[in-house]
Protein backbone atom coordinates (compact mmCIF):
# COMPACT_ATOMS: atom_id res chain seq x y z
CA UNK A 1 0.00 0.00 0.00
CA UNK A 2 1.43 3.41 -1.02
CA UNK A 3 1.95 6.07 1.60
CA UNK A 4 -0.01 9.28 1.34
CA UNK A 5 2.11 12.17 0.11
CA UNK A 6 2.06 15.03 2.57
CA UNK A 7 2.88 18.54 1.43
CA UNK A 8 4.97 19.73 4.38
CA UNK A 9 5.47 23.16 2.84
CA UNK A 10 1.74 23.79 2.55
CA UNK A 11 1.29 22.68 6.17
CA UNK A 12 4.15 24.75 7.56
CA UNK A 13 4.00 28.16 9.19
CA UNK A 14 6.11 29.66 6.40
CA UNK A 15 4.83 32.94 5.05
CA UNK A 16 5.78 33.82 1.49
CA UNK A 17 6.02 37.48 0.54
CA UNK A 18 5.80 38.11 -3.18
CA UNK A 19 6.56 41.74 -4.01
CA UNK A 20 4.85 41.22 -7.36
CA UNK A 21 1.55 41.00 -5.43
CA UNK A 22 1.97 44.66 -4.47
CA UNK A 23 2.81 45.88 -7.99
CA UNK A 24 0.37 48.74 -8.66
CA UNK A 25 -1.56 48.92 -11.91
CA UNK A 26 -0.84 51.79 -14.24
CA UNK A 27 1.45 52.39 -17.18
CA UNK A 28 5.02 53.46 -16.59
CA UNK A 29 5.92 56.33 -18.90
CA UNK A 30 9.22 58.08 -19.60
CA UNK A 31 8.64 61.74 -20.41
CA UNK A 32 11.76 62.78 -22.32
CA UNK A 33 12.00 66.56 -22.69
CA UNK A 34 14.69 66.31 -25.35
CA UNK A 35 12.10 66.85 -28.08
CA UNK A 36 11.05 70.13 -26.46
CA UNK A 37 14.57 71.58 -26.62
CA UNK A 38 15.97 73.74 -29.40
CA UNK A 39 18.13 71.43 -31.51
CA UNK A 40 17.71 68.87 -28.74
CA UNK A 41 20.18 70.75 -26.54
CA UNK A 42 18.97 74.18 -25.47
CA UNK A 43 16.00 74.95 -23.29
CA UNK A 44 14.41 78.19 -24.44
CA UNK A 45 12.14 79.24 -21.63
CA UNK A 46 9.44 80.94 -23.71
CA UNK A 47 9.11 78.00 -26.13
CA UNK A 48 9.30 75.47 -23.30
CA UNK A 49 6.54 77.21 -21.35
CA UNK A 50 4.37 77.35 -24.46
CA UNK A 51 4.74 73.59 -24.99
CA UNK A 52 3.91 72.95 -21.36
CA UNK A 53 0.82 75.12 -21.71
CA UNK A 54 -0.48 73.44 -24.89
CA UNK A 55 0.44 69.80 -24.16
CA UNK A 56 -2.38 67.32 -23.48
CA UNK A 57 -1.54 66.26 -19.93
CA UNK A 58 -4.69 64.16 -19.53
CA UNK A 59 -2.99 61.33 -21.44
CA UNK A 60 -0.98 60.62 -18.26
CA UNK A 61 -4.10 59.87 -16.20
CA UNK A 62 -3.29 57.09 -13.68
CA UNK A 63 0.22 56.65 -15.10
CA UNK A 64 3.54 56.58 -13.29
CA UNK A 65 5.87 59.09 -14.94
CA UNK A 66 9.63 59.46 -14.95
CA UNK A 67 10.89 62.81 -16.21
CA UNK A 68 14.22 62.73 -17.99
CA UNK A 69 16.30 64.18 -20.78
CA UNK A 70 18.12 61.73 -23.05
CA UNK A 71 20.37 64.40 -24.57
CA UNK A 72 23.44 65.90 -22.91
CA UNK A 73 21.61 69.18 -22.37
CA UNK A 74 21.84 71.00 -19.06
CA UNK A 75 18.28 71.26 -17.81
CA UNK A 76 17.44 73.79 -15.09
CA UNK A 77 15.63 72.20 -12.17
CA UNK A 78 12.65 74.55 -12.56
CA UNK A 79 11.86 72.84 -15.90
CA UNK A 80 11.09 69.54 -14.15
CA UNK A 81 9.12 71.41 -11.51
CA UNK A 82 7.05 73.15 -14.19
CA UNK A 83 6.27 69.80 -15.81
CA UNK A 84 5.29 68.40 -12.43
CA UNK A 85 2.80 71.22 -11.83
CA UNK A 86 0.90 69.98 -14.88
CA UNK A 87 1.37 66.24 -14.39
CA UNK A 88 0.42 66.21 -10.70
CA UNK A 89 -3.27 66.44 -11.51
CA UNK A 90 -3.16 63.26 -13.58
CA UNK A 91 -0.20 61.02 -12.73
CA UNK A 92 -0.08 58.59 -9.81
CA UNK A 93 3.60 59.33 -9.20
CA UNK A 94 6.25 61.53 -10.80
CA UNK A 95 10.02 61.28 -10.41
CA UNK A 96 13.01 62.85 -12.12
CA UNK A 97 15.08 59.92 -13.30
CA UNK A 98 14.79 56.57 -15.05
CA UNK A 99 12.19 53.80 -14.77
CA UNK A 100 14.19 51.90 -12.15
CA UNK A 101 14.16 54.95 -9.89
CA UNK A 102 10.42 55.29 -10.50
CA UNK A 103 9.81 51.68 -9.45
CA UNK A 104 12.08 52.15 -6.43
CA UNK A 105 10.09 55.18 -5.25
CA UNK A 106 6.80 53.34 -5.83
CA UNK A 107 7.98 50.35 -3.78
CA UNK A 108 9.43 52.53 -1.07
CA UNK A 109 5.98 53.99 -0.49
CA UNK A 110 4.31 50.57 -0.63
CA UNK A 111 6.73 48.99 1.83
CA UNK A 112 6.60 51.97 4.19
CA UNK A 113 2.80 51.49 4.42
CA UNK A 114 2.94 47.69 4.60
CA UNK A 115 1.43 46.10 7.72
CA UNK A 116 4.03 43.50 8.71
CA UNK A 117 2.39 42.35 11.95
CA UNK A 118 1.50 38.95 10.39
CA UNK A 119 5.25 38.22 10.09
CA UNK A 120 5.90 38.53 13.83
CA UNK A 121 7.88 35.53 15.08
CA UNK A 122 7.26 33.67 11.81
CA UNK A 123 9.58 32.20 9.20
CA UNK A 124 9.32 34.39 6.09
CA UNK A 125 10.32 33.62 2.51
CA UNK A 126 10.80 36.52 0.16
CA UNK A 127 9.90 35.20 -3.28
CA UNK A 128 12.61 35.91 -5.82
CA UNK A 129 11.20 35.11 -9.25
CA UNK A 130 8.90 37.73 -10.71
CA UNK A 131 7.47 38.67 -14.08
CA UNK A 132 7.25 42.36 -13.24
CA UNK A 133 10.14 44.85 -12.93
CA UNK A 134 10.71 44.75 -9.18
CA UNK A 135 13.76 46.91 -8.37
CA UNK A 136 16.50 45.21 -6.32
CA UNK A 137 16.22 47.92 -3.68
CA UNK A 138 12.63 46.85 -2.97
CA UNK A 139 13.96 43.61 -1.51
CA UNK A 140 16.37 45.44 0.78
CA UNK A 141 13.60 47.80 1.90
CA UNK A 142 11.41 44.81 2.69
CA UNK A 143 14.13 43.10 4.74
CA UNK A 144 14.71 46.30 6.72
CA UNK A 145 11.00 46.39 7.49
CA UNK A 146 10.49 42.75 8.52
CA UNK A 147 13.83 41.80 10.09
CA UNK A 148 13.04 43.31 13.50
CA UNK A 149 9.97 41.07 13.86
CA UNK A 150 10.45 37.93 11.74
CA UNK A 151 11.84 34.74 13.22
CA UNK A 152 13.75 33.87 10.04
CA UNK A 153 14.04 35.36 6.56
CA UNK A 154 14.80 33.31 3.48
CA UNK A 155 14.94 34.14 -0.20
CA UNK A 156 13.69 32.06 -3.12
CA UNK A 157 10.93 29.46 -3.29
CA UNK A 158 9.65 27.25 -0.47
CA UNK A 159 11.29 24.20 -2.08
CA UNK A 160 14.65 25.93 -2.49
CA UNK A 161 15.54 28.84 -0.26
CA UNK A 162 18.64 30.78 0.65
CA UNK A 163 18.75 31.57 4.38
CA UNK A 164 19.35 35.27 5.03
CA UNK A 165 18.53 35.92 8.66
CA UNK A 166 17.74 34.02 11.85
CA UNK A 167 16.88 35.77 15.06
CA UNK A 168 19.12 34.76 17.94
**Strand-residue proportion:** 15-25%
Q: How many strands in all?
A: 7
Please give the share of residues in helix.
25-40%
User: Which structural class is indicated by helix and strand composition?
Assistant: alpha/beta
The end-to-end distance, rounded to whole angstroms, is 44 Å
Largest β sheet strand count, sense and barrel closure: 4 strands, mixed
Helix run count = 4
Which of globular, elongated, flat, extended, rod-shaped describes the shape?
elongated
Given as residue ranges, the uncertain stretches (5+ residues, pLDDT < 50) are 6-11
H-E order: EEHEHEHEHEE
| Structural domain count | 2
Biggest sheet: strand arrangement: 1-5-6-7
Question: Taking Cα atoms only, what radius of gyration do you get, to the nearest Å?
Answer: 22 Å
If you average the pLDDT, what whole number results?
A: 92
Amino acid sequence: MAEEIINRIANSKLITVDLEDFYPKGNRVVFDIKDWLYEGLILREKNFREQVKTHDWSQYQNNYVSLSCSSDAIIPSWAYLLLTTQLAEYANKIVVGNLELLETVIYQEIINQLDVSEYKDKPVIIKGCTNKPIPPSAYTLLIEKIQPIAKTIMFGEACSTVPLFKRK
